[in-house]
Design goal:
globular; single chain; mainly alpha
């Protein structure tokens, strides 16, 4: 599982005394732990796709935080945020390209927007930008 890799890399970051990496690993592990607790309440297990969603949400939050630091003129913090984003981006699966999305849509019998969105959500969650799928499906 992805979380096992993150935990292993967190231990290595501790050994290396890499405070920047430790900080973002701590944030991600806490989010995964909390999500896991919520899932267990509902009788579910946490899977890699859940961890991918957490990582994607964290990257989005870091991007917003970086933009705020840039607006405030704090470029060193913005650089730290960018470094943290790069640390966790390596755990994300390769995202589908526009051409791959178009090819997948062309293979579908029902090319209506709801059908296309449902297909991608069911089969490619975490591996595709749903906004891009919507745009291509409408295009």
């Amino acid at each position: 599982m992805i979380i096992d890799e993150i935990k292993k890399d967190n231990v290595q970051a501790m050994k290396d005394k890499n405070a920047l990496a430790r900080a973002i690993y701590g944030v991600v592990m806490n989010k995964v732990l909390l999500t896991g607790i919520e899932a267990k309440k509902d009788g579910k297990e946490l899977v890699d796709s859940d961890v991918v969603q957490i990582l994607q949400k964290t990257i989005k939050e870091l991007t917003e935080e970086k933009e705020n630091y840039i607006k405030a003129g704090n470029n060193s913090e913005a650089e730290n945020i960018e470094a943290q984003k790069k640390i966790i981006e390596k755990y994300l699966p390769q995202m589908m390209s526009e051409d791959e999305i178009k090819a997948e849509i062309n293979n579908l019998e029902d090319k209506s927007i709801p059908s296309v969105m449902k297909h991608f959500k069911a089969n490619f969650a975490g591996k595709v930008d749903m906004g891009l799928v919507n745009k291509i499906a409408r295009g």
